[in-house]
Amino acid sequence: MMNDLTLASKRLTLRTFRESDVSNVHEMLLRPESTEFNPTTYSEDKNETIKLIKTWQKETEQGKDQRKFTFLIEDSINQTFVGIIGLDIIKLPYKNAEIWFKLNPENWGKGYGTEALERIIQFAFEDLKLHRVEGGCAVDNIASYRVMEKSGMIREAHRRKLLPLKNGWSDNYEYAILEEDYFSKI
Question: What is the pLDDT of residue 41?
Answer without folding.
Answer: 84
